[in-house]
Write a structure and sequence with these properties.
Pfam families: Big_8, Collagen_bind, SpaA
Number of strands: 29
Strand content: over 45%
Organism: Levilactobacillus tongjiangensis
InterPro entries: Adhesion_dom_sf (IPR008966), Collagen-bd_dom (IPR008456), Fibrogen-bd_dom1 (IPR011252), Ig-like_fold (IPR013783), SDR_Ig (IPR041171), SpaA_PFL_dom_1 (IPR041033)
Shape: rod-shaped
Radius of gyration: 39 Å
Protein name: SpaA isopeptide-forming pilin-related protein
Membrane topology: Peptidoglycan-anchor
Number of helices: 2
Distance between the termini: 82 Å
Length: about 425
């Protein structure tokens, strides 16, 4: 009984040890299955920054935290670089911009629109990650592409002088629905010097892919609520008389993502200050998302075929047999390939598919074969081998190194014998 208990305990220990080893091997294999690959053109120094008007910005200048920018890359992967499904590449942003939100988007083939990978970045980060699938594993030559992503500047302007109206925006709900966030907030501040203004009208024009949330205009402090009217994408807010600083917010529902990866609004304030007519316009932008493309040429899998030419009994290998090689559709692939002194010829660098040889000139003393010598190359048979016999034009001897004896022609040529060709 004690022996059985001890034995059972030992078996359990052995089982747990084996399970632990297998688990460690599995985890180690899983972790090693993907790696970071070298991709040209994704460094911070490789980036080009443009503002919401498409104007190129310096990668070292102060860029406004509340303004949207596009960061552009042109990337490529060397043909010699081995890529596997799940491999990643790091994308580095210049030091003066960063992502304001978490987001992810697909990279696609420029022609077929097939997915080639996914780009992700976290809020506040200056590095993102491309995770490749197996598309560029098979399309593994001439691999190149582009990447554009939205970012905000990192500079906060603390100079509150010399402005009359200001506008900023941010996402208030980044839950993804139909491929995009759902709600944005827009903040407008004006009259920081508490000027005495009359006939104050604020006209806000919404950019693409957003609609005004009715009743969402809220004004801070003791400022009377404006008279709000909406016509299409234009929101008109009439205040009448104002002699204090105004700070207001309203919301828009997001219906899609613009091609330039940012939502924008333009606010125009008209008013009268004494005898001076005022008319000021400001823009607000919210940066989010991006897009990317890439492509590569598919290098077809390649195989090879070896043809061995013999006499009709297989006893003698024949040199100087000439052949043409065709695809199954009859297209000439290789002309006048010839067997060597061993009776062999080899043709490599053949795409997978079906082919046939046609003999164009037989070795001296042998009959020309009219057969189509067919073969197929594929994953299961990347290297084919054909043994092709030729009949002799006359009687002759079939030599061997075995004992001498006379046999009939239907015996194999394993000794000295009379053979009929």
């Amino acid at each position: 009984m004690l022996t059985n208990t001890f034995s059972n305990r030992n078996w359990r220990r052995i089982f747990l040890l084996i399970a632990s080893v297998l688990l460690a091997l599995f985890v180690g294999h899983t972790q090693a299955s993907a790696s970071t690959v070298s991709v040209n053109g994704l460094g911070a120094a490789d980036a080009t920054i443009t503002n919401d008007q498409g104007v190129t910005q310096s990668t070292t200048s102060n860029l406004d935290k509340y303004s949207a920018y596009q960061v552009h890359y042109k990337w490529s992967i060397n043909d010699a670089t081995k890529l596997a499904n799940g491999d990643t590449a790091t994308v580095s942003l210049p030091a003066n911009v960063a992502s304001s939100y978490d987001y992810s988007f697909d990279l696609t083939d420029a022609k077929s629109q097939a997915k080639i990978g996914t780009f992700t970045i976290q809020k506040g980060s200056q590095t993102g990650t491309i995770t490749f699938n197996d598309y560029l594993v098979t399309h593994n030559t001439g691999r190149q592409g582009t990447l554009q992503l939205a970012a905000n500047g990192k500079h906060v302007n603390t100079d509150n002088t010399n402005w009359f109206i200001n506008k900023v925006g941010w996402l208030t709900n980044t839950t993804i629905k139909d491929g995009h966030p759902t709600t944005a907030n827009w903040n407008i501040a004006f009259n920081p010097d508490n000027k005495d203004l009359t006939n104050v009208t604020l006209t806000d024009t919404l950019g693409s892919d957003q609609t005004y949330v009715p009743g969402s205009v809220k004004v801070d402090g003791n400022i009377p609520a404006p008279d709000v009217t909406v016509s299409g994408n234009t929101i008109t807010m009439k205040f009448g008389h104002i002699d204090k600083k105004v700070n207001l917010n309203y919301q828009t529902s997001i219906t899609g993502v613009p091609n330039d990866s940012h939502w924008s609004n333009a606010a125009t304030l008209t008013a009268t200050n004494g005898s001076v007519a005022l008319n000021k316009t400001v823009h607000g932008t919210i940066a989010w998302g991006g897009n990317g493309e890439g492509n590569g040429d598919e290098q077809a899998a390649q195989g090879a075929v070896t043809l061995i030419k013999t006499d009709q009994w297989g006893c003698k290998h024949l040199a100087n047999a000439h052949f043409n090689l065709y695809t199954a559709a009859g297209k000439l692939v290789k002309s006048d390939v010839t067997t060597d002194y061993r009776g062999e010829l080899t043709v490599g660098n053949l795409k997978y598919g079906s082919y046939y040889f046609v003999e164009t000139k037989a070795p001296r003393g042998y009959r020309l074969s009219s057969r189509h010598l067919t073969f197929t190359l594929n994953d299961k048979m990347p290297a084919a081998k054909l043994q092709v016999p030729n009949a002799k034009k006359s009687w002759g001897y079939c030599p061997s190194f075995h004992k001498v004896q006379i046999q009939f022609v239907w015996y194999h040529c394993v000794t000295w014998q009379w053979c009929l060709w």
